[in-house]
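seq:
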Amino acid sequence: MIAKFGGVPFVSPSMREVSVDHNRAAIDFANRLITGGIDVVIFLTGVGTRILVQQVERHVDRERFLAAVSDVKSVVRGPKPLAVLKELGITPTIVVPEPNTWRDVLATLDERLPVANLVVGLQEYGVTNRSLVAGLEARGATVETVHVYDWALPEDCGPLEQNIRRIAAGEIDVAMFTSANQVLNLLKLADELGIVDEVRAGLRNIVVASIGPTTSEMLRNEELPVDLEPSHPKMGHLVTEAAARAQSLLTRKRSISKQLGNCGIGTRELRMPNSPLPTPHSPLADSPFLKACRREPTPYTPVWLMRQAGRYMPEYRRIRAEHSFLDLCRNPQLCSEIMCVAVERLGVDAAIVFSDLLPILEPMGMDLEFAQGEGPHIHNPVRESADVDRVAELESADALHFVMEAVRQTRADLPGHIPLIGFAGAPFTLASYAIEGGASRDFLHTKTLMFRDRAAWDALMGRLARAVIVYLNAQIAAGAQAVQLFDSWVGTLGPDDYRTYVLPHVQKVIAGITPGVPVISFATGNPQLVPLLAEGGASVISVDWRVRLDEAWQMIGDERAIQGNLDPMTLLADTAEFRRRATDILQQAAGRPGHIFNLGHGVLPQTPPDNARALVDIVHELSSQC
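struct:
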């Protein structure tokens, strides 16, 4: 197929399945199944299903084992294990639909076979899928894993070695990966050859095409790019879509690389900047946004909009039609593209990395899912004091490398004078998601834990605060010039509870941020919290529309900049109305240095894009006349 589209294929086997010798665990599993100790069996691969039967039949009656499989609920992850079971005369209970990822397995079980209080046998493939195991356990299942084979390098590594050397030498334009374990084996052999760094650098300068989400996740776990993932996880789609898009992707990547080279910046230097701070008096440092953060005079009031790259943009909707939200957040190239398009279309003075508040919770042990049309859902919420102990410390931002890569990519793609803002959820909002398991109106579970067990609450908040420090500083190191803390739900608290249960942890976060980097503290829902936000120590306080901007500035004092605060609903009105309201806010600022114009919350999905652009132009026009 590659040759059919005019390409020159260099194909190399990169792995083989090696059966586990003397697999006592498989025999024990078979006996448990025959005696009724297993309720559900999940078959993840066709090869693994076949090997499992072969290992079992040497010690257990084959027909009894297959009859036991037929008697329980069985789940197959896609067509390959389905085909093997059909050969064995077994019709599975459930076939997981494409793209057959572990998330699809869990979603299918939620819909068709709840596993609470059931014993689930899991046929593993090569390596343990810890996310799938955790997801099953979070749903109340007891999981018994059956490891039946390992991944090994091919018996003849010659063709793979040749391709590895071609990548290192820059002789390859497109690399296609059809399995997550191909990535590991390629890097393993490259390491044995002593050229793993050259291979990593080579992959960053070519088009990397991944067959589907599982392979993409592995590439990103190894801090490698994913430039293309087909609309369907099939070889035909992979080759066809690569043929259509590879040339433009390659031109773009190499253009960026050339620009960096002309500036004396190499790939490795881009990934780990020597200094997170812009050079003094450079176009970036002297941008209106950063000057406003420092409360210095600006030629006009800088403006950017929360959710300026979002559902109101047709470009965003087209991309979302092909990608789940989490997959989009894990795709640095698309994250950069979405934000850069928004910056160019709107004419704003700052960009913010495209991501979400909640991915930080995944490496801390939360089973996070974004359900279609329902928003985020955490399947293993923290409800009791004892649950706090299973929330892991975020020792480093390695597990969130895709966010750092999005920061690096966006920084590289943005115009040199446009600052990039990194962000994180504030500890209270993150804690509320972790405790409630999703959106909430009354925050019943959050306040119950907060009021009932102060020690557990502080332990959770402390853990989240330390995680946010690690996360934001990693974004700064990757290329963000400022950071914003989003406390979207803290308005549910009164001032006294905020001071007691939240403020100390916010102060710890802000004190831990890289010195010299502006921190914006944003909260919504309760104007009485504004003075307490200032006590948190942020250099910029962002307020919503529930308080006048001039009154809010009096609350925080002249030593801090302020951001805000047009009601997002205003952008659904006509131009004359939001011009009038923008004028009123600018008059409240009265030309004082340190005002960053923004909405009081994010752009609404119903907002006409032309209205958002008109607002930016109006703010620039009116403020430059002051």
